[in-house]
């Protein structure tokens, strides 16, 4: 007996939120830590900045997802109310359809929690990578390397679950992440030279 084909479209909404959330967390925190490392800050300053980025980013993701999904929820509820008025709620077919659709409404709180958790999981990778390394230059290199592996993993996982092309997905995430870290490093490096923001990397 042939198995039912995978409904990739049904996965699209939650898959997009999870992959984008984890990717955003990894790239944001890694770029922040690399940027701080560009001006030779101490390991403590680098880790604190990364932790601050994790907390702020997770809160931002949760609030943004909550507002977005709640707007979608309101639109769907309003649309069902219009259909109910047009068709008449006394009709049996309409009642059955309403019962089936009731469970399919988006859940803003669940979406917010999932986005915050995904962001945090992605952000943990660069934080752990730089937590136990004292040398500033080595720490920046390790954060970049671990973040690249994480990006490749997220890209591959998203492609496999979504039925997309794995190499293309991995390459897109890697290029985007590398650009973000490079730009952040360059801007902070130049700012450090201009404003004299250099501190011992111990």
Structure description:
- The chain has six helices and no strands.
- It is mainly alpha-helical and 202 residues long.
- The protein has a domain at 17-60 and 109-190.
- It is elongated, with a radius of gyration of 22 Å.
- It holds the Pfam family VIT1.
- It is found in: Vacuole membrane.
- Its main location: membrane.
- This is Vacuolar iron transporter.
Unreliable stretches: none
Structural class: mainly alpha
Whole-angstrom Rg: 22 Å
Oligomer: single chain
Secondary-structure element order, N to C: HHHHHH
Count up the helices: 6
In percent, how helical is the residue content? over 70%
Summarize it.
This protein is mostly helical and 202 residues long. It has helices spanning 8-38, 43-87, 92-102, 108-130, 136-162, 166-195.
């Amino acid at each position: 007996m042939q198995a039912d084909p995978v409904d990739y479209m049904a996965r699209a909404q939650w898959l997009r939120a999870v992959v984008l959330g984890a990717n955003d967390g990894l790239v944001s925190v890694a770029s922040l830590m690399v940027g701080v490392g560009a001006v030779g800050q101490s390991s403590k300053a680098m880790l604190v900045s990364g932790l601050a980025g994790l907390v702020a980013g997770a809160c931002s993701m949760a609030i943004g997802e909550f507002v977005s999904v709640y707007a979608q929820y309101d639109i769907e509820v309003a649309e069902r109310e219009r259909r109910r008025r047009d068709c008449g709620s006394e009709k049996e077919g309409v009642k059955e359809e309403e019962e089936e659709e009731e469970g399919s409404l988006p859940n803003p709180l669940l979406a917010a929690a999932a986005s915050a958790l995904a962001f945090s999981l992605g952000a943990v990778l660069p934080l752990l990578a730089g937590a136990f390394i004292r040398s500033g230059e080595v720490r920046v290199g390790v954060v970049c390397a671990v973040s690249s592996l994480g990006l490749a993993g997220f890209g591959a996982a998203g492609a496999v679950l979504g039925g997309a092309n794995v190499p293309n997905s991995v390459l897109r995430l890697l290029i985007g992440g590398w650009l973000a870290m490079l730009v952040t490093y360059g801007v902070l490096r130049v700012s450090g030279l201009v404003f004299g923001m250099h501190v011992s990397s111990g």
